[in-house]
Amino acid sequence: MPFIHIVLLPVKRDAPKHLVDRAVAGLNELGKHIPFVLSSRCGKTVTTRGKQYTHALVVELEKPDQLSSYADHPAHLAVLSDIKQIIGEETLAMDFDSPL
Hints:
The protein is of the alpha+beta class. 35% of the residues lie in helices and 28% in strands. The protein has one domain (3-97): Alpha-Beta Plaits. The protein is built from 4 helices and 4 strands; from the N terminus they run βααββααβ. A 4-stranded antiparallel beta sheet has the order 2-3-1-4. The longest helix is centred in the last third of the chain and has 13 residues, at 74-86. The relative contact order is 0.34. The mean pLDDT is 93.
């Protein structure tokens, strides 16, 4: 049963585009660098509904106990360094088991 990790990112309006693009690309490529990441998708919102987090990340791991290894993986830490430069406030995260 896959394990899902979701993060909502509030990117600052004045964040340099090249840093935002690099962070999004890095997040989308996590599956290439972390063997137990089944998929990783990040993108910018296209709506104006609700509280506005500008970007979202959805990562699918093989199993729940890999979340800490994912968090400490060098590929994740490298992207996290970029993210810390572009976010304007605290991120929102959620993790859950997926039945499919």
